[in-house]
Amino acid sequence: VYQLVSVTSSLSLRFSHVVSNFSQCEEFFLNKKTPNIPTILKDGKVQNQTRYKPICQKYQNTYRFATLYDTTNRIPVFSAYKFTGAVKGRPSQAWMIEPQAVDADYEKNNLSMDRGHLLPCQYAADIDAKKSTFTLTNAVPQASSFNRVSWRKMECSVKKILESNCIDANGKLKANLVTGAVPGNNYLNKVNIPSSMWTAFCCYNRNTKKWIAQGYWGKNEKSVKPPLITLKDLEEELAKAYSTNPNPVKVFPDECPRNVKDIKRKRRLVKEVEGDKDRKRQREEMDDCGEGDEFDCDDVNECDCECNDVRMNECDDV
């Protein structure tokens, strides 16, 4: 095990552990089982340790999440993390560099690409956890309109699904997620531009006494809305993308159902109440819809942190 030390322009210090396997940060994988992508990661073992680097992401002396990093393409394969609730607000945090991923890779950018988070800042449980997401080993080049609109709406929608459905037997909010990127054929300087991005979640719902799991898959293109798909369909897409057939891809262990097509969601009806000058909104119920969200960002080029729902009508499911 050795440490990677990185210093940003604001002199913030980061320590990330590149390890031979994820045993030091296995807590971020459901039942301590890593995804199985046979050509890359099989039974917790990296198949090509020269190219792929497991990273236990550490910030302020605490492990925050786990990343498998592709040093050839200079992008992460995936980041794995837990969702236990989130705090609002965007931290004052510059992007932290690592020896594998430096800010110069994103300079001279005339392709309308953002540095897009895999683990979203808005999912973090505290301010230090939010800051920890701003490492370039947790970022990929995302088409600006995809990152700022459709992908971010998906992140907000998933967050609301988790908050409504992922209360475990002990009454605590808890879910496991994995978010990844599939390499494409184009590059931003030396950094591969992913052709597609994906995310999956799995959790136990104490109300239904069942496990639930679903995923999203979206092309990294302008204004492409990621469709909600079953975990089975997502794993089949990944098997095609990474040419693992006939060996299947498994993002989560067996307890996560592969064919959940619909999750019961709360819906919200918003009424308009006329005020003196301003319209006041009265929320009767909350739902998990993402259409019409606005985003509270200090810096639109780097912010994945907040979403504020401003819709005035009953919304459709996403």
UniProtKB/TrEMBL annotation:
This is Uncharacterized protein. Residues 285-296 have a biased composition (Acidic residues). GO terms for molecular function: hydrolase activity; metal ion binding; nucleic acid binding. Residues 274-296 are annotated as: Disordered. It comes from Esox lucius (Northern pike). Residues 274-284 have a biased composition (Basic and acidic residues). Residues 62-249 form the ENPP1-3/EXOG-like endonuclease/phosphodiesterase domain. Residues 61-249 form the DNA/RNA non-specific endonuclease/pyrophosphatase/phosphodiesterase domain.
